[in-house]
Amino acid sequence: MTNKTFWISLFVLTCLGIYLFVSAPPPLPEKSAAQASIPVERLFELVQTENAAVRALWTQEIVGQGIKAGLKFSEHWRDAESEAGPLPALFLRETAKSLEKSPVRLSLFLGSDYPISPDNRFEGMQKDKFEQLRQTRQPQFFYIPDIERHTAMFADVAVAEPCVECHNKHQQSPKHDWRLHDIMGATTWMYPTQKVSTEEVLKTLVVLHDGFRDAYTAYIEKVKTFKKLPVIGNKWPREGYFLPDVETFMQAVLERTAQHTLPALGALATAKDTGAVEVKPHADTH
Predict the structure, then answer these.
(1) pLDDT of residue 285
(2) Cα separation of 272 and 286, whole Å?
(3) What is the C-alpha separation between 146 and 143, in angstroms, rounded?
(4) Do residues 84 and 76 lie in contact, with contact meaning Cβ atoms separated by under 8 Å?
(5) Which end is more exposed in the chain, N or C (fewer Cβ atoms within 10 Å of the end residue's Cβ)?
(6) Alpha-carbon distance 210 to 278, whole Å?
(7) C-alpha distances in angstroms, 202 versus 24, 62, 67, 83, 208?
(8) CA distance 5 to 250
(9) 189 Cβ contact list (under 8 Å, min separation 6)
(10) Any idea of the CA torsion for 25, 31, 37, 40, to the nearest 10 degrees?
(11) Which string of DSSP letters, residue by residue, matches 70-101?
């Protein structure tokens, strides 16, 4: 790395740190769209990498270790009488709900050709693209004219036995022979423009982190209604009947996502041709 590149990267990362973690971003100026030069595919890859890291954190450290510690997780976790938390797919749904309330025009959806809920079934062009994804196991990028949205699909892979068992045993599941490492669906992102500015990328990341925070906060608020209340603080379920508080959880989110996101943003800021930057997206995990 040259000295010039190093200092530019350092400047970008410093600005990002302030932008993401200290202050709320101001509204985007009108000229942002004119300055947009980053292909939206790079934005999709970036948010997918962030989402995959956080879902892995949720699946491994909260759900997996939590079950061992005595915590419960259910698709009916929102029911008043339920003393459970959201399954991994439902944590994603909570994040998506938060995105829908934000001014950023990014949308998030988890679909399948064999969904438990019929509302999550891929149709039309999305169904065709998902079939290509299943055959190639590669992300699919395409434009949907009727809704005017650029779209990216990333494989949602069954990597944990409880996920397979849940779908195979579920009464409403249209498929009961899932196996580990099957592609059970696709995490789908949508955005209205073909190009985005650096500022739009940063603001989208801020809103996505807000979504992770909102989803975890909703779980903690539910936990506070449990008859057997776990200790909420700086410890994790792997240490016993504990749950991290919101700030501890978000610190872990930053630790898991920064190692991928910060180098990618530095590359976007220094690349002469931003379309050549490789973000190395991760497949999502079920």
Answers:
(1) 57
(2) 37
(3) 9
(4) yes
(5) N
(6) 25
(7) 11, 28, 35, 37, 10
(8) 30
(9) 44, 47, 48, 106, 107, 108, 109, 151, 152, 154
(10) 60
(11) T--B-TTTTSTT---B--HHHHHHHHHHHHHH
Taken as a whole, the chain contains a residue count of 286
How far apart CA 262 and CA 205 sit, in angstroms, is 11
At residue 23, the pLDDT reads: 46
The pTM (predicted TM-score) of the whole model is: 0.82
Grade residue 7 by pLDDT with cuts at 50, 70 and 90: very low
Distance CA 234, CA 244 (A): 5
- Helix, strand and coil in the chain, % to nearest 5: 50, 15, 35
Confidence of residue 172 (pLDDT cuts 50, 70, 90): confident
Q: Give residue-wise pLDDT tens across range 22-67.
A: 444 445 444 454 466 899 999 999 999 999 999 999 988 999 899 9
